[in-house]
User: What shape does this take?
Amino acid sequence: MPENIYERIHQTLSWKRIVGFNLILFLILIIPISVKLAQQDTENRSSAAEETPIVIPPPNYPNALPKIDRVSTFFGKTGDTVVVLGSNFGDFQWGSKVHVGNVEAENDGVIRWSNTIIEVKIPAGARSGSVWVAVNKNEAKWDGNLLLYDVARAAQVGFQKLTSTSGKIYTSNATSATKGMIEISYVSEPLNITAVNGVIITSQIPLVDSLGKKMKINFEVIQLNSSKTELMDYSYPGLGPLEIIRAEFHDSNARMISIYSDPLLIKVMP
Assistant: This one.
């Protein structure tokens, strides 16, 4: 008697064949999925490693001693940003510290740290005083003082440009000053400074740092008015800017006087 269709199917699809077919189908499906998941896991781990690198400072980094050339600007108030310029600060802050106005700045107050530039906010509690950095157990101290000010009571200093090559250096609200120092950065020479109105220049010292030329002028005064008072005349070839990068006034008791100036008035453009 001929086999019917059901008997043929039963003979063809034995349980061994069914199991074998299902196993082959399972392998065909599961292997590509497993490979894809493994690739994605590797990519995710690589991406995470790129986003959060673990950087360990090498021993004695940096090897050279840190140095501060300038602090810009030389006056400010709590929360203002000052820029420390120099060399050998290290490309990363790591355990290094910066002190502004005799107070250590918190890490979240450091806006930028590089080998030559540190941008930092003046911390709460700061007062007129020193700026220094501590890098790899070595300290570098700025030879000036950051001046904390109250605009209403602070003395002011600035340039008054008369021609493209000449002008005046003036001050106001500095009646208690008996001596002082002004440091000017410049490009073209000669830079000539002469005293006026009872001011006596005791020394003019040309200096050079990594940022260029500067002139340190020490002076004494007989009497200053509360209104705008001329201190010195300046003249130069008119090439490049002039900028007051430091200024300090002292009273008869050698106490520093608070100084403030509009940043636009401490710089002369050619």
